[in-house]
Structures are given as structure tokens and as C-alpha cells.
Amino acid sequence: MKTYIHRKDGNTELVVIFGGWLTDENTFLPLCDGSFDIIIIHNYSYDPPFIIPGNNIYDKTTLIGWSIGVWAAEYFVPRLNIKPDIAIAVNGTPYPFHDLFGLPMEKAETYLGSIDYDRVRELRLEAFGKTRGFDDNYNKISNHLIKSSLTEIRWLYNRIMEQERPSLRWDYSVISKDDKLIPDSNIDNYWKSVEKTKRVKINKSIHKMKNSWKSINGFIEYVQTE
User: Fold this and answer.
1) Which residue, 118, 124, 225, is CA-closest to 172?
2) What gap in Å lies between CA 207 and CA 127, rounded to an integer?
3) What are the tens digits of pLDDT across the range 103-147?
4) How is domain 2-225 classified at the CATH fold level?
5) Pair type for strands 172-176 and 198-202
6) pTM here?
7) Burial of 62 (0-12, 13-18, 19+ CB in 10 A)
8) Which of 5, 81, 144, 222 is the most buried (most CB within 10 A)?
């Protein structure tokens, strides 16, 4: 996996984001205002980093799993010794390929079988709804090479098939409408079964949701007060 780290002297809060497929730091940096340190983890087919800054120096550490990044957090956080004070799952579950809680298996296998260079280009456009949305959000488009994206999704599928039981405590689950990968109803089905996780539903598509806050801290505060 790849890791982007930005630290600033005097910051007392850390945000750790496990991004979704076809995301990288470009997706989230427009929401970073410098008031917190940030680690953005993405492109999971690469080897894990040797060093992740310890979070014992921070007053507060927030973990955000974005889409398939919820599963990735479950997989990597115990290995990286990240200990969040607050954990927020956004449009994802620990079971991204699952008949009840993720993308149904038959569709997942068909989906993976159809992934090629042209399909990845289409998905990048679909993520923003239409061409204008893509153009308006161009600065948030991942720099992943298409070949790298294809390698990553196949790596993810193979690791997910080795599914371990979820071990993280997720305080909040944010569910937006019109997710392009996992049906909203399946995301809701999973989190309804997790008693200690508060569900926060947002009547916006996921890309419009990112445009609703000026910073990640604004998003975190919204989730906590809903």
C-alpha cells in the first residue's frame, strides 16, 4: 500500500484515512486545512510501510474508512498499531464482497471479470455522475495509473476472500445514496446489525458529500452531532 503523511508542528490531532479503490491523497487533500496531521493510506497492493508515526503524541486520533477502505482498515490497523479514539466508516462495511453486506458475490465476480482499461476510465467518470462533475472535481482525481488500479482490485479481492472477523470498533457509519460499488441497502443491512455503531444517513451521492464540508474536521463534527 501507499502512504501519504503530512505533519505540522503544534498539531494535536491526527486523522488516518483508508481510502477507497481509485482514490489517493488527491481525493482528500482539498479537505485538509492544516489544523490536523493526516495519514492517507491507499493503493493496497503495495507492501505495507515500514514506519507509521505513533499516535501516542496526539490528543485525539480519528480513523476514517472510505468505501472499501473500511475493510482495509480492518485488515491493516491491527498490523500498524493505530489506536483510534473515534472511527468512522463511510459507504462501506468490513465485508465489501458479500451477498447481504457488500457487493453481492455473483455481481462481484462478474464485475471483476469485466474490469479493463476502458472500464476504469468509465468508473472515474461515473464516480462524479457526469462529465461536468468530473471536470469540477478534477483536482480530486486519483493519480493511480490504470494498470496499478487493475492490480489493486484483484489483490483486494484475493485478500477479502481470506476474510477475518471484524475486530475494530466503528463509532459511526455514514451512508450516502447512489454508491457506485456497494448497494446502499446492503451497507445499511450490515450496520443495523452492529449495536454500538451510530448510522448517519446523508441524502447525497458520495462525491457531492465531499463537497459539503470545507475540511475533514467539519465532516467529523457533523457526523458526531447528527
Assistant:
1) 225
2) 7
3) 888 877 776 776 666 666 666 555 555 555 544 554 555 555 555
4) Rossmann fold (3.40.50)
5) parallel
6) 0.83
7) buried
8) 144
